[in-house]
Design brief:
CATH architecture of the largest domain: Beta Barrel
Radius of gyration: 33 Å
Order of helices and strands: HEEEEEEEEHEEEEHEHEHEE
Helix content: 10-25%
Number of strands: 16
Distance between the termini: 77 Å
Number of helices: 5
Largest sheet: 8 strands, antiparallel, barrel
Strand content: 35-45%
Strand order of the largest sheet: 3-4-5-8-9-10-11-12
Structural class: alpha+beta
Shape: elongated
């Protein structure tokens, strides 16, 4: 038991250190690492427990109470840890109605199995969370009185390291509030309860508990944000344009500083502005407008300002090889509306001159799949 406890303590410490450096990955999606102050929570719960689970005889007569206060943090959508302080009054001898008091603490690693299997969703109502950890329990005949007054606090007293395992059923009721039902199991030395010795028929005793409680977020961010992975085809295209402009600048630099006088050219009347369709590209599974794409919105805004009677229609699309039709339909709607909002709010275009439409992945305007993560401007 002691060797196992030391091994599990080492695992908890290693997990707490490495969790800050590891990438957050859930169901194949990479998530941005949050600040150290984010994703902390506090839980308060109470319930019942029954001591010595070697058999289920007279189960109802062995029920006592338990209370628990926990603090923890989710390092990723899947992995987290928590520390707890608890106490209770189990029945250790139901035939003589003998009870004992105890207080203790514990530390556990939590695994959100729902997010691991089904993918992370911040607004999911139910999550199934198993946990595994270690703890410590100190037993007393009466609150804050040593069971063996003549001995030192930690010498020959009713105490034990514990091995803890259980399941947390989390129910989300608000952005920072969860209700939960927890089933816990603890294994401790048989000498923990009064009158028992390690040389008994059983080397270990056990405690089963059932708790209900509420969990609060402790400020800061409580969810996780998907990382916006770079679209390398777009990057390569931009790099090609940069290299072409550099080559043109080099050619211009070779021209002589002075040139012969040229006759004056007749004044040319400006032609009517012709609108060139603009396109806003998006990264995969995103409707956030990159700074490099703002130039398309700017050009369209300038055209509308120079042509007061012109109107524009923005149509959003999604590529066919990513996601599923219902999701892509909503994603293309968000892309079209994001571009329209930028045109109206950032460049001062009247909303009556801007309309939106979206096609999901039902239409693919470009032959390259990646190019179809776009919103396209059309004049009306």
């Amino acid at each position: 038991m002691k060797k196992f406890g030391l091994l599990l303590i080492s695992a908890l410490v290693a997990f707490g250190i490495s969790a800050q450096e590891a990438q957050n990955v859930s169901n194949g999606t990479v998530y941005l690492k949050n600040k150290a102050s984010d994703n902390w929570f506090m839980g308060l719960s109470g319930g019942i427990n029954t001591y010595n689970m070697k058999d289920f005889d007279n189960f109802g007569d062995r029920i006592g109470w338990i209370g628990q206060l926990t603090f923890g943090r989710w390092n990723s959508p899947i992995w987290g840890f928590r520390f707890g302080i608890d106490g209770g009054e189990p029945v250790i001898d139901y035939e003589n109605d003998t009870k004992m008091k105890w207080i203790g603490g514990h530390a556990e690693i939590m695994y959100n199995m729902t997010n691991a299997i089904m993918g992370y969703k911040p607004d999911r109502v139910y999550s199934f969370v198993p946990y595994l950890g270690i703890g410590y329990m100190y037993g007393m005949e009466d609150w804050f009185e040593k069971p063996n007054p003549d001995n030192d606090l930690f010498k020959d007293q009713n105490q034990s390291l514990t091995f803890n395992a259980g399941i947390i059923n989390n129910f989300r009721v608000g952005k920072n509030v969860n209700l939960f039902l927890e089933i816990g199991y603890r294994l401790m030395n048989e000498s923990f309860d009064f009158g028992a010795t390690p040389e008994g028929d059983w080397e270990y005793d056990a405690m089963l508990s059932a708790l209900a409680g509420v969990q609060f977020g402790l400020g800061g961010k409580q969810d996780f944000t998907p990382a916006e992975l770079m679209d390398y085809s777009l990057i390569n295209d931009l790099n090609s344009q940069i290299n072409r402009l550099r080559a043109e600048n080099e050619e211009l630099g070779k021209r002589p500083v002075s040139c012969p006088e040229c006759p004056e050219c007749p004044e040319v009347q400006p032609e009517a502005t012709v609108y060139v369709p603009n396109v806003v590209y998006f990264r995969i599974d995103s409707y956030k407008i990159d700074r490099a794409q703002q130039v398309s919105i700017y050009n369209t805004a300038e055209y509308l300002k120079q042509n007061p009677d012109a109107k524009v229609k923005i149509v959003g699309y999604a590529d066919k090889l990513t996601g599923y039709p219902e999701y892509n339909w909503k994603l293309s709607e968000k892309r079209a509306k994001a571009v329209a909002d930028a045109l109206i709010k950032e460049y001062g275009i009247d909303s009556t001159r801007v309309s939106v439409d979206w096609k999901g992945d039902t239409e693919q305007p470009y032959p390259q799949n990646d190019w179809n993560r776009v919103a396209i401007f059309f004049t009306e």
